[in-house]
Amino acid sequence: MLRVSVKSSFTKIPRRFASTKSSKVIGIDLGTTNSAVAYIRDVKDKKSATIIENDQGQRTTPSIVSYSVNPTSNKIEKVLVGSLAKRQQMINPENTFFATKRLIGRSFDDDEVQRDMKTVPFKVMKQSPTSDAVSLKISNGELKSPKDIGAAILSYLKTTADEYLNEEIDKAVITVPAYFNDSQRQATKEAGKLAGLNVLRVVNEPTAAALSFGLDDKMKEGERKNGLLAVYDLGGGTFDISILDIEDGVFEVRSTNGDTHLGGEDFDNVVVRHLLNNFISQNNKNKKLSLQILLENRALMQRLRDAAEKVKIQLSHVKSAIVDIPFLYDNLHLHLEMEEEELDKMTLHLINKTIPPVKKALRDADIETEDIDEIIMVGGMTRMPKIRKTVEDLFNKKPNTSVNPDETVAIGAAIQGGIISGEIKDVLLLDVTPLTLGIETIGGAFSPLIPRNTTVPVKKTEIFSTGVDNQTGVEIKVYQGERGLVRNNKLIGNFQLAGIPPMPKGMPQIAVTFDIDADGIINVSASEKSSGKEKSITVVANQGLTEQEINKLVEEANENRDSDNTIRKRLELITKADIMISDTETAFEKYKDTISTDPQYGEVLNELKALRVMIDTFKKEENNTKLDVNVIKRSTDALQNKAFKLFQRVTTASQKK
Ligand code: AMP
Question: What are the transmembrane regions (predicted)?
């Protein structure tokens, strides 16, 4: 039996492996409900990704960790992972942690954490009054983080691989939902580190599934699969849809979408409610049962949840099934028959919630449902016939069920590991940027450099210049978002490029380069051509944004496109006029003595002052569309003209003298 020892297991290296660190990179699917580990092996001169069975002989491991507290010493005496932990769940509900992937990398105040903590039998709390981190409280008072739970699962999977391969494995590729934000990805990586793994790459789950679908057969049969692929992934806690284009070993993610809070557990919860309601109505003749009291009984809820999941899974294979829970409460039993049709009906709203993200992903990839060549189904929930039928109706095509929905993600992660270690060649995995990236330019406008859903890695350079004469520095502000004005987008980084030689405005050539690597890490650099001055920063895209937030941003951008454009044009005009008039003011001040001799000097100066007042008013009320910005443009052009003529007259007069 594999046990994760309390203190040292995460980093401890078993002595017999110490001298043989493996070059192998294992692939791990760290799932909400189940996890799996795979590696690349040679099968008759070909490479094949293979699942490693755990010490219980299972190909997947429940993502559950249970702590046993000794009642006398009040110390943790045992940590169990996987199905052994799951078996403890009933007798030790408050110390058995499951579905903690929903909490990893989130702050306590996060809506999803607040929602989740109400439905789980263990205690979720704030780490401390001053920290926003999520903590899980064990009954002896000790706190664990969702990252610690992830680390315990990863440690178990690492040991599974170590023992099976008889080598010490210290490198891994771990998968995450496509819409995990930076802090969730970072927390997953840190969990890997705690488990003694160097996490070489964090890969999106649907991308891994596509890799497994597109490559595993190729490796075995020597054939290649090309075409447009939709990966429909409904697991225990999240739903993801990705559209990929596979062309001769190049995997390009065209778009991704999903729902970070939709999965098998939501289906289980619906069934739990159904069972509870039936239990109450079956027994209310003899006893008044309070729903609230039942809901607060953690052991009872755990038994119900187990029964609900069991009947849900059974109904994927048979038309009707019996739920039998003896002595559920006091001496009362639950006995109930459920039909597949009944389950379909009560969970239809959840199944239908997957349709809009699919449509959005297709729209973003700029394709129609009929363009999709294959639909692959990932995640245990896709075994439910009603879900398969819904997907078939949506695409007007039968989904491909040749891949094993529980194993394909880990297989894909192992393939990605093989690509990194060099075991698998000629494959390039391409991901996409979730939102447009660009910089702020004149008047607070957003100048995009990398449009959303651009395939990464990508590198792009554009030339910008200064807006004011003799400007010796520029601030490069990097934004992410879909709106035309930076103030509606998210600032993800900024830096100053100083030391530009004084030149008239528009003369310096400042090359701004965005370089995004395969992990989505963005390097932004700016260099001024004549001086060679250069500066750069590294930022992470998609920081702190959930998939829902991304969808909202895109929708808002679409809704506001016209008004954003109007405001953007106004601001550009106002800023340009402001710069022009400032130049004229400077020239008037500098050559005051000479130009004041011209008879029209006083008139032009007054107009200049009036225009300054007007521009300042517009600047203060930049959104007030009642102020006609064209007036500024006309007045600025007229004044420029008059000032130019005045300078010409004065110059001609002085030459005549
Ligand atoms: P995953 O996160 O991919 O391991 O998916 C786990 C989810 O799939 C859990 O909610 C399971 O209850 C559910 N599941 C597994 N097998 C089936 C099945 N045959 N029918 C319906 N749901 C299933």
Answer: none
